[in-house]
């Protein structure tokens, strides 16, 4: 969730995870993560990058169908900035 530059995703791949998927809603973050993957010489066969707005439950369901079940979901420093909802 929110892979950003790909540090956690790439670390999981290097630590022996069979397959790792980094997801982010930012095309800039995904491009940076893919470049980091190439720079770190991590096998592109075990790492996948997907654009995903994790607030979109239908998109999350489609990604799960595409990739199959997960053993774990990892998130680091994820913050969702919600727009103001009015007076409390």
TrEMBL record:
It comes from the Eukaryota. Residues 1-80 form the Methyltransferase domain. SUPFAM superfamilies: S-adenosyl-L-methionine-dependent methyltransferases. InterPro entries: Methyltransf_25, SAM-dependent_MTases_sf. Pfam families: Methyltransf_25 (PF13649). This is Methyltransferase domain-containing protein. It comes from Polarella glacialis (Dinoflagellate). The lineage of its organism: Eukaryota, Sar, Alveolata, Dinophyceae, Suessiales.
